[in-house]
Write the structure tokens for this entry.
Amino acid sequence: MRGVIMVGPGEVTVGDREDPTIVDPTDAVIRLAATCICGSDLWPYRGVEPVDHTAMGHEYVGVVEEVGSEVKTVAPGDFVVGSFVISCGECPICREGYPSKCVNFEFVSATIGTQAEKARIPYADGTLVKTPGRPDPDLIPSLLAASDVLGTGWFAADAARVGPGKTVAVVGDGAVGLMGVLAAERMGAERIIVMSRHPERQRLAREYGATDVVEERGDEGVAKIMELTGGLGAHSVIEAVGTQESFRQAIGACRPGGHIGFVGVAHDGVTLPMDQVFFAEVHLFGGPAPVRRYLPDLIDLIWKREIDPGKVFDLALPLERAAEGYAAMDERRATKVMLTL
């Protein structure tokens, strides 16, 4: 089969990879209908994370081709959406609502790589969710978004305790931040302030429900949010970047007693200013999103066309042109790139 391989930083190719097969009785093999490039894929692309002829990708939708003997919830012919984290669905951690920390968890990006024609998905019952039927083609981008960025933005809003009557600040205008805006609007937030300097992303943020845009960053950005909130700060803050600066902005923008949902992937060298955290008196909750927990409800909302997260894809390319997609996202010419098969 054909699949994306990152040879080294800045070097992406599409080559032949071994066709997946059933290995364990809990496996499923799916033929992908679409996959995409994630902002987190840019870390190795930019040389921040090590990479050496690595199979890429962790967001995926497609049709089940084969299942192991113990798989019960999906069958050949089903169209499915999968989480970016493999989870069994049966361990105590999964049952408590945190499949992204399943005792059997694997990151799809680390072990599988779904920017390809096919993929083997371990623990299919705990990882995949089938749709009510074969989706119309126009629904595929939205279902693909549910595999990671929509579920991650939703978790960020949930972790930040977004709700009716609340003011929400969103730090980060990438795909996850934009999905956080969508989730906050759906959860009933009264005011949604997005921090963004990009006109196209601002436009989509407003379409998804943002009421205010703050272009300033750092201390100036925090001051602007304080001005917009009467000096109190936001009830809920979504942190969707993962840098030192973004964490400081999130903490500074949150009112005392408020909640910060952080889903930006932090890397080596990013530390919390504990004096600021201590005196801010805010709640911090985040990490890898338990997307599988949200998938049934998100698929239902998409299927009923009540939400349209697929608009976050502003560039679609065939799989063979994946290198162009990586370059477009790296250079901020695209927010999120869908790869078609």
Summary: The mean pLDDT is 96. The first strand starts at residue 2 and ends at 8. The two ends are 11 Å apart (CA to CA).
